[in-house]
Write a structure and sequence with these properties.
This protein has about 350 residues and is an alpha/beta fold. The protein folds into two domains: about 1-105 and about 245-339, Isopropylmalate Dehydrogenase (3-Layer(aba) Sandwich), CATH 3.40.718.10; about 110-240, Isopropylmalate Dehydrogenase. The protein has helices at about 15-30, 45, 55-60, 80-90, 145-160, 180-190, 205-215, 225-240, 275-290, 290-310, 330-339; strands spanning about 5-10, 30-35, 65, 95-100, 110-120, 120-130, 135-140, 165-170, 200-205, 220-225, 245-250, 255-260. The strands form two sheets. It has a ten-stranded mixed beta sheet with strand order 2-1-3-12-11-4-5-10-8-9, with helices on both faces. A two-stranded antiparallel sheet has the order 6-7. The radius of gyration is 20 Å and the shape is globular. The protein binds nicotinamide-adenine-dinucleotide. Nicotinamide-adenine-dinucleotide binds near residues 70, 82, 261, 267 and 315.
Length: about 350
């Protein structure tokens, strides 16, 4: 039997890191039939949109997808393919584990945090306009009971299923009294239904400081969209950076996995970047498919190669100019050998 999975390679470094992930998944022996779909700037001329309907249809049909990063123009141009995909498929939960990997240079050891980010509303609702062009602009931040309830419930269910002890809701309810006030009240109501899991809340600025000073006080964090985006990158920084941080976008019965990092255009096509984040996203996908043993083997192989510190990309070397750093393909070869 083989699993049919939508593969969106993305652009920039996307092609290289997704190719690495496909090779590692194949090496586990789990048969995956990749339904390759292109999205991003490269398809606009042909389809008039960076996210053609047939790409969404493919994920809807297969129920599982994995994607490389897709470039989003800054300030102008088309809307983010990533945001559009999450909204169109109602992938409401963005799950970003941040776990220390021995051998990755970082200020901390044994970090094991999980960031649960609301993926469909907040400041990413996309309701933005010029009030006076060039002088004033406005963006509307939408928080609803429905979206808050399901994301907080997701965080508690995740905590329960994964033996986690505490969920922290992060917000700015002292200032954003209507929107984050609602987020916090709903979080407290959902928390009351999970007496077996501890619950607390933090104002986002304080949470950022405490995560840097005392990260061990946190376990699972649940946040509205923009705070989740920022705090999850902060948590990636605690465990050695974007190159090692996987992610998952989950809805009801549909999931799209992707690394946390972007398309790093300056490194595109150079066989330089770290494939770990995408390979670990592949492990999250294997887990989701029920292939737990294969997922664990991938995680162990990645950990082993990084711990040895020899066949690793430049970003995992103590000195980023270390001439012994290997390329994306060679690090992937080492991970496959370790499998
Ligand atoms: P980025 O993640 O591409 O790069 C940030 C930094 O991290 C850079 O210094 C880069 O060199 C480094 N880096 C990233 N991935 C790495 C890897 N695998 N190995 C080693 N180093 C790595 O973020 P950015 O520069 O802010 O964004 C570039 C583009 O990516 C933008 O168009 C942005 O919109 C897009 N983006 C897409 C996604 C996504 O598709 N989910 C996520 C974030 C950013």
């Amino acid at each position: 039997m083989s699993y049919r999975v939508t593969l969106i390679p993305g652009d920039g470094i996307g092609t290289e890191v997704t190719e690495a992930m496909c090779r590692v998944v194949a090496a586990t022996g789990v048969a995956v039939d990749w339904d390759v779909q292109q999205a991003g700037e490269g398809v606009i001329a042909q389809y008039g949109t960076p996210l053609p309907d047939h790409v969404l249809e493919s994920v809807r049909k297969n129920r599982v997808g994995i994607k490389g990063p897709v470039t989003t123009p800054i300030g102008t141009g088309f809307r983010s393919v990533n945001v559009a995909l999450r909204k169109a498929l109602d992938l409401y939960a963005n799950l970003r584990p941040a776990r220390s990997i021995p051998g990755v240079a970082s200020r901390y050891e044994d970090i094991d945090l999980v960031v649960v980010r609301e993926n469909t509303e907040g400041l990413y609702a996309g309701i933005e306009h010029d009030v006076i062009p060039g002088e004033a602009a406005e963006s509307i931040r939408v928080i609803t009971r429905r979206a808050t309830e399901r994301i907080v419930r997701f965080a508690f269910e995740y905590a329960r299923e994964n033996g986690r002890k505490q969920v922290t809701a992060v917000h700015k309810a002292n200032i954003l009294k209507a929107t984050d006030g609602l987020f916090l009240r709903v979080a407290q109501q959902v928390a009351a239904q999970y007496p077996d899991i501890a619950f607390n809340d933090r104002i986002v600025d304080n949470a950022c400081m405490q995560l840097v000073q005392r990260p061990y006080e946190y376990d699972v964090l649940v946040l509205p969209n923009l705070f989740g985006d920022i705090v999850s990158d902060l948590c990636s920084g605690l465990v050695g950076g974007l190159g090692v941080s996987p992610g998952a976008n989950l809805g009801d019965g549909v999931a799209v996995f992707e690394p946390v990092h972007g398309s790093a255009p300056k490194y595109a096509g150079q066989n330089r970047v770290n494939p770990t984040a995408t390979i670990l996203s592949g492990a999250l996908m294997l887990n989701y498919l029920g292939e737990r043993e294969a997922a664990a083997r991938v995680e162990h192989a990645v950990t082993q190669v990084i711990r040895e510190g020899v066949k690793v990309t430049y970003d995992l070397k103590a000195d980023r100019n270390d001439p012994t750093a290997v390329g994306t393909r060679e690090m992937t070869d080492a991970i496959i050998a370790a499998l």
